[in-house]
Structure formats: C-alpha cells, structure tokens
Design goal:
The chain has helices spanning 11-22, 34-38, 40-54, 60-68, 76-80, 94-107, 127-130, 161-173, 190-206, 212-223, 229-236, 239-245, 251-263; strands at 3-7, 26-30, 70-73, 85-88, 113-116, 136-141, 150-154, 177-181. The protein is of the alpha/beta class. It folds into 2 domains: 3-181, NAD(P)-binding Rossmann-like Domain (Rossmann fold, 3-Layer(aba) Sandwich); 190-274, N-(1-d-carboxylethyl)-l-norvaline Dehydrogenase, domain 2 (Orthogonal Bundle). Strands 3-2-1-4-5-6-7-8 form an 8-stranded mixed sheet. Residues 187-281 form the 3-hydroxyacyl-CoA dehydrogenase C-terminal domain.
Length: 283
C-alpha cells in the first residue's frame, strides 16, 4: 500500500503523515480546515529536528524528501481518489468518526482499506458506517510515533484476515512494531495501561494533593521512569484529555476536563507541540 490518506492533521495525525512520508509513502493530508493545512509547513519544521535527534539514519535531505511526498487538501473526494489505505485521526468522538467514515465509504475506491487511530473507541462501533466493515479496523499509534513506534492493529469480528495482515505489514513498512491485538479491547494494550495511570494523576491534581511538577517528580524518582503523567499529558496535547473527560461519569474527571479547558486550552497552552502546557517549553 503505497498511497496513504490521513484524515486529520492534529498532533498525532501530522505525526502519522510525516512518518509515513519519511518511510517512502506518498501521503495525502486531509483536513476540513484550510487554516490547519496552512500550519503544516511549520509542523514539519518542528518535527525535523526531533527526527535528527532521535533517529540515527535521519538526514536533512531525507526529511526534505519526506515533505515533498506530502500533499495537503481540504477536498475529501480529491484526498481519497487514489488511496490504498485511509487512516483517520479526527477528534475522539464517536459521532464525528461515524459521520466521517460514512462519507469516506461513499467516496473511496473499492480496494481501499480503512483504519481508525481512535484511542478508546471500538472498530465495531464505527465499521458499519463505512459501508465495508470487512475492510475496517484500527491502527493505533503512540505519541511521538518516530521514536515510540508501536502500531497496535485491532480488528473486529467482521474484519477480514487479509485486511488485518495488510495493515500490520503497512505498519512495519513505516517503521512501526506491529502489535497484533487478538480481540477488541477499548484502549488496546497501551491505553488500557496508560489511561488509568493518567486518571490517577488527574485526580491528585483536582483534589489539591500536589502540583503537577511534584506528582511528576515523585513518579520519576521512585520508578526511574523518563516522564511523569503531566509530561505525558503535554506530549499528548490538551484537547485529547479534555474531549475524553468532559462528559465523564466521574465528577472528578469532569472537573479535570474543566480545569484543562479554562487554565490551559483557553489560554493557548495546548501542550508540548504548542510550546506550553503544564510546562513551559518555550523558555
């Protein structure tokens, strides 16, 4: 599968786009927002030094060649016209994903395989809306995909073995380590472990137990981990925990979502990629 279309150019969507292009794929970057597409060149300039820092084989020439393989568009039909694989990275809301895939299923070529990068939603809840559930599954990336390079591949009962293996092979071709998930699990492996951990940190903050820096410091010193939970929140970006928790049944997690919105999102502190989140990266 040489021709990839990525739906959504946010933090993770843009990383998937760049990593696939860096690995030699031809990538169409689709977003409904022209403003978001206009920001992509700056995003590539942000990612280039990170590749040079973290990947021994990265060179300025290879990074420039990756950018040359990326074509942005706000026209969905144009984005899908020659797609072998579509990876969706739109906001983490079931209704938005279902509506997106309904449109994609009407426009994409018959051969195209569909993959959602959803962090928490199940493929079986989205697949029927695509019109071709046998070619629908999930391919989940960890943030900072070039370095934290797992690719969790998870189908549903109706996913064909051929589509499943094709996506696992694609993940390997773009430098991921394919993790084959044998049955549907909200959160796959990674987020089934990570989300409760981040939720515990959020509750410590909401309860006023300790500051983000001290919560992180405790975890890092006591376990030897390279990053604490609020550093991870900054890497993920503020929009994801806000969307996931604003309608939570847990009042403390709703309070955390409101804190994230008022004290961070509304102040332009969107996470590490924006220069500020729980920590200030600009200085």
């Amino acid at each position: 599968m040489q021709n990839l279309t990525v739906l959504g150019t946010g933090v993770l969507g843009s990383q998937i786009i760049f990593q696939a292009a860096y690995s030699g794929k031809d990538v169409v970057a689709y977003d409904v927002s022209e403003e978001a597409l206009e920001k992509l060149p700056a995003r590539w300039e942000y990612l280039k030094p990170l590749y040079l820092r973290d990947l021994p084989d990265a060179t300025p020439e290879k990074l420039d060649a990756a950018v040359a393989r990326i074509r942005p568009t706000a026209d969905l039909a144009d984005a899908l016209a020659d797609a072998d694989l579509v990876i969706e990275a739109v906001p983490e809301r079931l209704d938005i994903k279902q509506q997106t895939w309904e449109r994609v299923g009407e426009l994409a070529p018959e051969r195209t395989i569909f993959a959602t990068n959803s962090s928490t939603l199940l493929p079986s809840d989205i697949a029927p809306f695509s019109g071709r559930p046998e070619k629908f599954l999930a391919l989940h990336f960890a943030n900072e995909v070039w370095a934290k390079n797992t690719g969790e591949v998870m189908g549903h009962e109706g996913t064909s073995p051929e589509a499943f293996e094709a996506v696992a092979q694609f993940a390997e071709e773009i430098g991921m380590v394919p993790i084959r998930i044998h049955r549907e699990q909200p959160g796959y492996v990674l987020n089934s472990l990570l989300v409760p951990f981040l939720g515990a940190a959020a509750k410590l903050l909401v309860r006023g137990v300790a500051s983000p820096a001290d919560i992180d410091r405790t975890w890092k010193i006591a376990t030897g981990a390279p990053a604490g939970p609020f550093e991870i929140y900054d890497i993920v970006g503020m929009m994801t925990p806000y969307q996931l928790n604003k309608d939570s049944a847990d009042p403390e997690m709703r309070a955390f979502a409101e804190l994230v919105k008022t004290e961070y999102i509304d102040q332009g502190k969107l996470g590490k990629g924006a220069g500020r989140g729980f920590y200030d990266y600009e200085s």
